[in-house]
Design a protein that fits this description.
heterodimer; A: 560 residues; mainly alpha; de novo design (two linked rop proteins); disordered N terminus; B: alpha/beta; 5-stranded parallel beta sheet; two-stranded antiparallel sheet; 5 helices; disordered C terminus
């Protein structure tokens, strides 16, 4: 048998909603998550370039692959400067969106100032005009430049609109690993040039420890670094590759193979760069999926409103009968207080739904109606409803027989017009195929059953009050309920009602049928005892409730 | 808010080569992400396992639930193995998306791992503005006011099974609006075909009457 593991997705839903909510909170000028992820990655890459340029300087000084180092240095300088400008002004080609954040811009100004002096030394190195002073400047100031650039990256990470997207930190730190590869190579070169350079040794050890810690954190998670374990298989695979390369890199450092270190640093740099890009891409992918889900959900809800309208329009029919039944029960002093409260609620609900059809009601899930034919029918219902409502209120206050008479005399007229409104709604939104038409029909018929439960009880009460002319009507109501329930349960080809196959729908309709089986003889019985009357009164709301559940299922669980 | 439950149907956590029932001789399982959660897609390892739910039904009334032909709108029809490979190669690399064309209640009740839900009715009589928004999230670009599908993702669409027309009702308007036929695949066997082979599914929510 299958083992069903469970996962509480509530948190995920909250995450989605929070993300969507936050998306709307971001001002128009703010960066999208995609842009921000890209900016974090490229700003992070600047740190690496600082170390790479420093490393190239020392390669040139140490006369190790001098020409290649020069070429690299030239490219790195150009790229660093272009990106620095791009982070402030934007650079489409590089995929950089301008960052408007004041704090970030001020930080970039600080970086630019340091960069201008740093650049002069680098130019001297390129032009073979460098002095010991230039080399010392690079050696002493590359870390300051790196520190200021790192502050900039931190500001970008903090700008992340959703703290739930923890991978922003992963982009930052995976990106930082690129810088560390270059810094490690740089310090290895410095130690080659001066084995007694204590600062370089200290920095090398510190950066090696940091590289290992970050890599481990990216794989297994590290609370102190704000990293969660990476579970995405393809990123994990790349991280494992980086880990293998890191073992080899460490071996070269320990052996003091400075040339091997320089070469291998670039290899590890490429791997870590790929990891960073994958993190960046994964954020974009997730955001896109969330945006698509939210968009589709919005469009779907707009489409699904039709069945909701038919359900609620159908419910109005039931309310006309329920209100009349409640007025009768109050008159007969049966459950007076409860029925008074219910009548009050039902008046409000009918009134609110009717207004909702015209103006829309988000809570009820109703859009404003624009169809002129429907609006004209709503007007006709309103003409009947307004006096009906006044008399119902008056009856609640004074319990006068004249108000009751009005309700008894006009409820079926209101029912008739409410029923026409359901049909007008159906016609206003024509369905495209057999299946859709059948589904609307089922919601309508199941909805009508709710009304019939109330109508038959009202009629039974009227018979008890000696309105003998209602007997025939009651027979018809009972028959209609009976036949419709049969159609809903077993299908009716002529009426285009599909036999349900969904177990939940079938079960719910069987439940209704079971209640009905016990109630039907009581409705049809000429004379009933007080005990039997109380069974009807007690079971009628149960029948209505269970029928309402069946309507809900017809509305939401679509057969396919 | 209604509590959603995601159940990942995995049976035994055997090592790749130790599985008794593989997907193909060279494929034991495939890992994918579903709503950010890693899901191991494999086959039920119980050789006695039988389907007992709605997907074991054989005789839905026709019409409307008639058997659909193998060809649909001139697009490529794929079978279960191709679907698994699509998941492994296209979905995991970000080049493809699996689309569940059924209504949200069905999608939440049970779906194929990594699938996103685009209910077919969303595309019925859809206007270009709305379609553009959806297509953009599927990788389409607007260049000089024209829709450019060069970087649009490949999609594999499915619904309930060979009797189900929801895929067709999604695919048809998509093609009409310009989504390239060669980027659409139809997994005709749908949920029934997937479940019949005991492949992992994800469950988010069980439909309940209020």
């Amino acid at each position: 048998m299958a083992d069903f593991g469970t996962y509480d997705a509530k948190g995920w839903v909250v995450k989605v909603l929070v993300s969507i909510f936050l998306l709307f909170l971001i001002p128009a000028s703010a960066l999208s998550t995609r842009e921000l992820a890209r900016d974090i990655n490229l700003a992070g890459k600047q740190r690496m370039l600082i170390q790479r340029m420093s490393k190239d300087v020392f390669m040139i000084v140490a006369n190790i692959e001098k020409e290649r180092a020069k070429s690299d240095l030239r490219k790195s300088m150009q790229l660093f400067e272009r990106r620095l400008k791009g982070l402030v002004d934007g650079d489409k080609e590089l995929g950089l969106a301008p960052v408007k954040n004041r704090e970030f811009r001020a930080q970039i100004t600080r970086v630019s100032k340091l960069w201008n002096d740093f650049k002069l030394c680098l130019k001297n190195v390129l032009n073979n005009k460098f002095s010991q002073k230039d080399m010392s400047y690079v050696k002493n100031n590359n870390l300051q430049l790196l520190k200021e650039m790192n502050e900039g990256v931190k500001i970008l990470v903090a700008m992340n609109p959703s703290t739930k997207i923890v991978r922003a930190q992963a982009i930052n730190l995976a990106g930082k690993e690129r810088m560390l590869t270059q810094s490690i190579a740089k310090n290895t070169l410095l130690l080659y040039l001066d084995p007694k350079d204590g600062v370089a040794r200290q920095e090398l050890e510190k950066n090696m420890a940091l590289f290992g810690k970050i890599l481990n954190g990216l794989i297994k998670g590290d609370e102190a670094l704000g990293l969660q374990p990476t579970k995405i298989p393809w990123i994990r695979r790349k991280l494992q590759k980086a880990n293998k390369e890191w073992v080899e890199f460490k071996r070269l450092i320990e052996r003091g193979d400075y040339k091997g270190v320089v070469d291998y640093a670039d290899r590890l740099l490429v791997t870590m760069d790929n990891v960073t890009k994958l993190y960046e891409k994964s954020i974009q992918k997730e955001k896109r999926a969330l945006a698509l889900a939210s968009l589709v959900d919005r469009f779907y809800k707009e489409k699904a409103k039709l069945k909701r309208i038919i359900n609620l329009a159908g419910k109005q029919r039931m309310l006309t009968q329920k209100m009349t039944k409640e007025a009768l029960l109050i008159t007969l002093h049966i459950g007076e207080q409860r029925n008074e409260a219910q009548l009050k609620n039902d008046i409000e609900l009918y009134d609110r739904t009717l207004r909702g059809f015209v103006k829309g009601d988000e809570e009820l899930g109703l859009p404003a109606t624009k169809n002129l034919e429907v609006l004209a029918q709503i007007k006709r219902v309103e003409v009947l409803w307004e006096p009906f409502k006044s008399h119902a209120h008056a009856f609640l206050q004074k319990k006068e027989i004249n108000d009751l008479k009005y309700l008894l005399g006009h409820n079926e007229e209101l029912l008739k017009e409410s029923h026409i409104l359901v049909q007008k709604f159906k016609r206003a939104y024509p369905s495209e195929d057999f299946l859709e038409r059948a589904r609307k029909e089922i919601v309508d018929i199941a909805g009508r059953q709710r009304m019939l439960t109330q109508k038959m009880t009202k009629e039974k009460l009227l018979i008890l009050l000696h309105f003998d002319n209602v007997k025939q009507k009651l027979m018809q109501t009972v028959q209609l309920f009976n036949n419709s329930l049969k159609d809903l349960r077993f299908g009716n080809r002529a009426k285009k009602i599909i036999k349900p196959t969904n177990e939940k729908v079938k079960k719910q309709l069987s439940k209704v049928a079971k209640i009905w089986e016990n109630l039907k003889p009581l409705y049809l019985k000429d004379k009933i005892s007080q005990k039997e009357l109380f069974i009807i009164i007690k079971q009628n709301p149960v029948l209505l409730k269970e029928m309402d559940k069946a309507v809900y299922l017809a509305e939401t669980v679509v057969e396919y | 808010m209604q509590l959603l439950v995601l159940a990942l149907i995995t049976i035994y956590t055997f090592a790749q080569d130790d599985l008794l029932i593989k997907i193909a001789p060279d494929i034991s399982y495939v890992n994918v992400l579903h709503h950010g959660i890693r899901v191991k897609v494999m086959r039920n390892q119980d050789p006695e396992h039988l389907l007992l739910d709605d997907y074991s039904k054989t005789s839905r009334p026709c019409p409307p639930f008639c058997i659909h032909p193998i060809k649909l709108e001139g697009i490529k029809t794929i079978a279960t193995l191709e679907m698994v490979k699509f998941m492994r190669d296209k979905v995991n690399s970000g080049r493809g998306v699996i689309v569940d064309a059924r209504l949200p209640s069905w999608y939440k009740a049970e779906t194929i791992p990594s699938a996103i839900n685009i209910p077919f009715i969303v595309f019925e009589k859809i206007d270009r503005k709305k379609a553009e928004k959806i297509f953009k999230l599927l990788g389409m670009e607007v260049k000089n006011g024209h829709w450019d599908f060069s970087h649009a993702k490949e999609i594999a669409v499915f619904c309930n099974g060979v009797w189900c027309d929801q895929s067709r009702r999604l695919i048809k308007p998509m093609i009409k609006l310009g989504y390239p036929k060669e980027k659409i695949f139809w997994y005709r066997n749908g949920m029934q075909g997937w479940k019949l082979l005991g492949l992992t599914t994800v469950v988010q929510k069980v439909n309940k009457a209020k």
